[in-house]
């Protein structure tokens, strides 16, 4: 019988103490839940991943054609990346993750999506700071300046609430122009937010991209027995 609570990994990182743990929730019929904590913040739980999947489905649902090159910023528990891999039009997925232990969790199969991502030849892990790559030569580990069909980002809590102060410049007009430079014509940028989309950031996106809209994602919270809400911003190049 598995214990009701296990700490699967603990690592000290530049961003704080990183913990992966698994718990069995009796009130949910002994369902296994994976949780990630960074410092004093709870980053994610496998119990709530509907909006991470929606980020991929909404963003890629705006694309045409085949042979897609896609970037996912933020690996986490892998739900966005796993949803991307379900699209047969995908040629390559580059997943950018700043915390090396998170990549190792997937390679070691410690998290639910780990094996599926690691064994899929279309999926490439890149250990790097997503925000530094935007300021630099882009996301392709081999070719500088490569343009992608879509960039899906799920790292910060919202465009105003960041995990680190160094992330803030991305959410400016200049930062969005830099990110856009790594998208192909008609490429898509999609951003997850813990809060519903805000008009201020939508207006900023609209000054940089040909079009921008906000989507609300609702999902059940079985612990509180209510409906929770997240947001997804979607912007399209010319």
Written description of the protein model:
- The protein is 24% helix and 38% strand.
- The protein is an alpha/beta fold.
- The chain folds into two domains: 5-43; 48-236, Vaccinia Virus protein VP39 (Rossmann fold, 3-Layer(aba) Sandwich), CATH 3.40.50.
- The strands form two sheets. Strands 7-6-5-8-9-11-10 form a seven-stranded mixed β-sheet. A four-stranded antiparallel β-sheet has the order 1-2-3-4, with no helix packed on it.
- A hairpin with a 4-residue loop joins strand 10 and strand 11.
- The protein is globular and about 55 Å long.
Q: Outline of this structure?
A:
With 238 residues, the chain is of the alpha/beta class. The protein is 24% helix and 38% strand.
Compile the SSE list and pairings.
Blueprint: E1 5-13, E2 16-25, E3 31-38, E4 41-45, H1 50-60, E5 68-73, H2 79-85, E6 90-97, H3 100-107, H4 114-119, E7 123-127, H5 130-135, E8 148-153, H6 173-180, E9 183-193, H7 199-208, E10 211-221, E11 226-236
Parallel strand pairs: 5-6, 5-8, 6-7, 8-9
Antiparallel strand pairs: 1-2, 2-3, 3-4, 9-11, 10-11
Helix pairs in contact: 1-2, 6-7
Key attributes of the depicted protein:
alpha/beta, seven-stranded mixed sheet, single chain, 11 strands, 7 helices, four-stranded antiparallel sheet, 2 domains, 238 residues, Rossmann fold
Walk across the major sheet and give the strand order: 7-6-5-8-9-11-10
CATH topology of the largest domain: Rossmann fold
Mean pLDDT rating: 94
Cα-to-Cα separation, first versus last residue: 56 Å
H/E element sequence: EEEEHEHEHHEHEHEHEE
| Helix content, binned percent | 10-25%
Provide the domain count: 2
Shape: globular
CATH class of the largest domain: Alpha Beta
Strand content: 35-45%
Given as residue ranges, the uncertain stretches (5+ residues, pLDDT < 50) are none
